[in-house]
Amino acid sequence: MSQTQIQQQDAGYHLHPFTNTGRLNEKGARVITRGEGVYIWDEDGNKILDGMAGLWCVNLGYGREDLAKVAYEQMVTLPYYNTFFQTTHTPAAKLAEAIASVTPGDLNHIFFAGSGSEAIDTIMRLTRHYWAIQGKPYRNILIARENAYHGSTIGGTSLGGMSGMHKQGGPLVPNIEHIRQPYWYGEGGDMSEDEFGLVCARALEEKILEVGPDNVAAFIGEPVQGAGGVIVPPATYWPEIQRICKKYDILLVADEVICGYGRTGNWFGSQTFGIEPDMITMAKGLSSGYLPIAAVAVGDRVANALIEHDEDFNHGYTYSGHPVAAAVALKTIEIMKEEKIVETLRDDIVPYFQQSLREALSDHPLVGHIDGVGLVAGMALMKDKESKTPFPSDIDIGMICRDHCFSNGLIMRATGSRMILSPPLVISREEIDELVQKARLCLDLTLESAKKLGAL
Ligand code: PXG
Predict the structure, then answer these.
(1) Ligand 1 pocket, mutate which of 16, 50, 56 (most atoms under 8 A from CB)
(2) pTM to 2 decimals?
(3) Protein residue closest via CA to atom 19 of ligand 1
(4) CATH assignment of 31-63+340-452, given 3.40.50.720, 3.40.50.460, 2.60.120.10, 3.90.1150.10?
(5) pLDDT at res. 4
(6) What is the pLDDT of residues 223-234, one digit of tens each?
(7) What angle do CA 168, 169, 174 make, to 5 degrees?
(8) Residue 86: how many other CB atoms lie within 10 Å
(9) CATH number of the domain at 67-338, please?
């Protein structure tokens, strides 16, 4: 089938997520046909370096036969069986143990879901249920942050802090509060990073006191906000959040859907930022994106309460612990251990990536600031970086840059005027060199476009 035929079918029948479908249909979606390592190819044969690992997930790179074989073997052995009615199967049991072997602290009790959004709905229900079985059903307020992303089910949308999402499909789930995000470059003003981190964390204490400590179930946050633009919090932020949660006996949940499985340079973002959460969510890197699977790792406090409470927890999904997805996730964890992915990142690839980005791009006239940790980074594009002046709203500088990247063999994602990188964890030094060279070229082209549009 030709590219045009596929585009016509797509335009005729496919409603895309987070997309203005009418506009997309006019120009036609780009057809991606295959992947190998850190590269993908489109229907016209263009080779593209995937600086986003799909959607923050293809951590082990494309085209791994070892993952495909495991899926095939599991499919012919047992393609599906549920874990609802007093049954289990080898992939789910083995995967639960394997996840517990890599999660920090006592996060050793695993509840499976099919997506990050479902994992988030699980923690929303489980944190509230926990307090209900403690005899405190009034402790049901969840506190999250503005510009957080926690998925797009009604639960994830409500818990997230994306105003564009809150406007659609409401009313939202009640008893959710949002506090400010720790975005120092954008909102820190004259404060030092450390000072600003404390101010943002103390917004949690203010909110707790405002709604009453006895009414709060949990605080939920991404260690690094991903879809919000790669907002890396100041070093003071998470320890202070942890202290406040302990002080008011509030459950702390880290949404590790992006940060989990190596992205920040450790197995989990909680380790990078010194957080000891009561629960974490995970998805994406758990199966390297090869099949949809997610999980919540629950610590002893909540798990023991559930286990000791003599009643079903009436929650779960048809595909909780799906055997094929679980087998692939198990293999993913085994590969990460065997190939020492986290160690290689820590000792070599992360410092090289972060340094190369800064050396190549910091002095670019458009780049106001680079935020980054592990193998993830966000760049703020500014009209005038000295005076921190953003582009006017009619110039979508992020989209202009993203389009230049697309045309020049690089996937870099735009969140507003921030450009995001989150490449596969198996990227080599040479491929990082190629990535930063392409990024520089595309920033130059973006600068030219902005001048042509009269924005500079
Ligand atoms: N929590 C976090 C922190 C996420 O990043 C979810 C939950 C929801 O996961 P599912 O599997 O339901 O999508 C996510 C997902 C983007 C983008 O544009 C990011 C995500 C999903 C879609 C787009 O950066 N993250």
Answers:
(1) 56
(2) 0.98
(3) 227
(4) 3.90.1150.10
(5) 85
(6) 999 999 999 999
(7) 105
(8) 5
(9) 3.40.640.10
